[in-house]
Design goal:
Layout (H helix, E strand, L loop, with lengths): L2 H5 L3 E5 L4 H11 L4 E5 L22 H11 L3 E5 L14 H5 L1 H8 L3 H14 L3 E2 L2 H4 L8 E3 L6 H18 L6 E5 L2 E5 L5 H13 L11 E4 L13 E2 L1 H9 L4 E5 L4 E2 L2 H11 L2 E5 L6
Parallel strand pairs: 1-2, 1-3, 3-4, 8-10, 9-11, 10-12
Antiparallel strand pairs: 5-12, 6-7, 6-8
Length: about 290
């Protein structure tokens, strides 16, 4: 399919949780292209899609999704939004999914990036073209520099560099996209619980006296994995992330510019200023 022909067809958006799928949809609609949304039950907000053409799908319903997408004339797909890794024995399988089950099991035997890439390949084999949300809505990406009025100090920059070093090492094992570092000491690494719950652990560690650095020291650092397929699951920061960092009494939040999603930048800036913390986009390749 030529690029011109592709743009004449609707864009399918497979929607996880949060508001970013709608931000992407609105951006595409403003560009003049139609969209059809496929919110995933259990992930997406049930009340968010009434103003958009959409079809609900369940995890494991590949056959239903393929039929709906074909009926809509969709060839291009975007995955975006918060996803929860399902237990493989809880997936509601249709016959198309059953026929692909060996490949799905193989995809589950790895980290989240391995899983999403494996599912994406199944869809590519059906003739779909998978593209990154940032390709159709580039304004969702974090830019370099601070959002809000606060700036990181020298100690914060050292913590950021240390966090990037740790994430680079972990990323080779497809583990996590976030770390909290305070005064060079790693306080928490992101695992299956997600960023906000990881940061909540830091709050609890402070409460019970396990964190010895004073309030206002420490940075939440988020970065994509080194070999990550950037069509899926880019690191994301939103107002809730800032509020969690403030409750953990951190100095701020740092994410890699051009490789991470910022949700509602104006609200992020307001939340950061109210909390007295910084949110900064750092250049890719930043080191100590």
């Amino acid at each position: 399919m030529s690029e011109a022909t592709a743009l004449d067809t609707p864009l399918g958006i497979i929607c996880g949780g949060g508001s970013i799928p709608l931000t992407v949809a609105d951006s595409v609609i403003k560009s003049g292209r139609k969209v059809v949304l496929f919110p995933v039950a259990g992930w997406a907000d049930a009340s968010a899609f009434s103003n958009y053409r959409h079809h609900w799908v369940n995890v494991g319903q590949l056959g239903r999704f393929y039929r709906l997408a074909a009926a809509e004339g969709i060839r291009d797909l975007v995955f975006v939004g918060t996803v929860l890794r399902p237990a493989i024995n809880k997936i509601r399988l249709d016959w198309k999914t059953v026929s692909s089950f060996p490949r799905i099991v193989s995809a589950f035997r790895g980290g989240d990036d391995h899983l999403l890439t494996g599912i994406g390949r199944l869809m590519e084999d059906e003739g779909f073209r998978l593209i990154g949300a940032q390709e159709v809505a580039p304004q969702i990406l974090m830019t370099e520099g601070s959002i809000g009025t606060r700036q990181p100090g020298d100690g914060d920059l050292n913590d950021i560099a240390r966090g990037l070093e740790v994430l680079s090492a972990l990323g080779q094992s497809d583990v996590g996209q976030a770390v909290v570092v305070a005064d060079g000491h790693v306080l928490a690494l992101e695992a299956a619980e997600g960023t906000d719950r990881m940061v909540a652990r830091v709050s609890e560690l402070r409460r019970i006296g396990r964190v010895k650095t004073p309030p206002g020291v420490g940075v939440l650092v988020k970065a994509p994995k080194k070999s990550q397929d950037r069509r899926f699951d880019l690191p994301t920061v939103g107002p809730e992330t800032v509020e969690a960092a403030a409750r953990a009494e951190l100095a701020g939040v740092a994410i890699v510019a051009g490789a991470a999603i910022i949700v509602d930048p104006q609200r992020v800036a307001r939340a950061a200023d109210v909390a007295g913390i910084f949110v900064v986009g750092i250049p890719a390749g930043t080191s100590a």
